[in-house]
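Late entry, written up from scratch paper. The run itself happened at the end of the previous shift, but nothing got recorded in the book at the time, so transcribing now.
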Amino acid sequence: MNPLQTLTRLPRAAVEFSNILLTTGDATIGATGKDVVWTHRKVTLYRYRSENRRHEVPVLLVFALINRPDIFDLSPGNSFVEFLLEQGYDVFLLDWGVPADEDVDMGIDSYVCDELHSGVRETLRASGAPQLTLLGWCIGATLCAMYVALMRDAKLAQLPTPAQCGPAAVDPVRNLVVLTMPVDPSNSLYTSWVGGDELDVDYVADRLPVIPGRAIDWANKTMKPVTNWWSTYRRLFTQVAAGTARREAYQPMAKWVADNPPFPSRAFRQWITWMYKENRLVRGTLRLRGARVDLTRIDTPLLVVTAGADHIAPRHTTLPILDLVSSSDVTHIDRPGGHIGLMAGSKARKEIWPNIAGWLQERSSAAIDLRQVP
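Output as recorded:
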C-alpha cells in the first residue's frame, strides 16, 4: 500500500477501529453448551454437554480468582473446552462466580477446603467416575496443588468411596495438571511490588470487603504498561489500516481481559501475605484451618506447563514444584508465550493443547489408580 492509499484509508480505518473497540462488549465468549451441576454461595460447577465422552476419567477445570474462567472456552474455534470435548473428555468447570460484599469471609481455606473439595465430590457424583483429573491455571493451579497435598495427607474429609473401589478410601484425584502456577515467587516482579512494606495489605483488606477487580487489573497491567496501554491498540489500528484485522480474534480476548471480578478481602490478604510476603508454600509453613500444606505429599501423576514469556508467574517461580513433589510420574512442558497467550493464543491449538490431551489420554483409562488415602 503506497503512502497515498494509506492516507486515504485513514478515515475509514479510524471508524472501523472505533467500531471494534466500542462493540467488544457484544462479543460471544464462553459459548459451549453446559449444564449446572451444583452451586454453593457464588460458586457453580458446570458440566459441558457432549455425546462423545470416550475417556473414563473426567477433567475438572479450575481458574484463578482474579479473572473469569471463560478463558477456558474463549470463542468457537479457539476454545480449550471445545478441543477437550472433541478429544472425548468429560469436562467440568468450577466457576468461582462474582464475589460481593457479603463474601468478605471467603478465604483461601474456603476456596480449597470447601468449594474445591465439594466441586470434586460433585464432579465424581455427576460423572459416576471414581477419580478425576484436576486441571488448574494460575492461582487456580496453586489452589489445586494445595488441595491435592491436603487430600494425600488425609487432612480433608474423606469423599464417598465408589462401590467399584471396595472398602478402601481411594484418592479422588487421579492426575494433576498445573498451568503457569505461582509456587515460589521469590525474585519476581510481583514480589518486588507487593512483597515489601510498601503495600500494607492489612490496611487495604480491613477497609474493603472485596478488592475491586479493576484495581487488580490495573496493577497487573502496570507490569507491562507500554504493551497493555499502547502496543495492543497500535497493533490493532495498524492491522485495521492494512485490512488484516480479525475482529473475531481481538474482541473475545479483549472482552475477557476487561471482566475482572472482585477479590474477597480475606482471600486477598492471605494470598498476598502467604505467597509474596512470607513465601509460606515452599517453606512448608502454610496452613489451612490448622493443617499444614505439604507439597511433598503430592504423589499423583503431574503435568507442569510453563510459558517462556510469562511475567505474572515466570518459569522460575513454577519450577520448584518439580523438586517438592513426591510423584514418580512428572512431566514438564515449556512453550513460548505469555501467562494467558500460552493457552488462549492463536497458536495454542497446535502448540500446547494436543500435548495436554495426549498426556491425559495415557492416564485416563478405566482402571482405578489404587493409591489409597493414608
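Residues 261 and 342 are 22 Å apart (CA to CA).
(Scratch paper discarded after transcription.)
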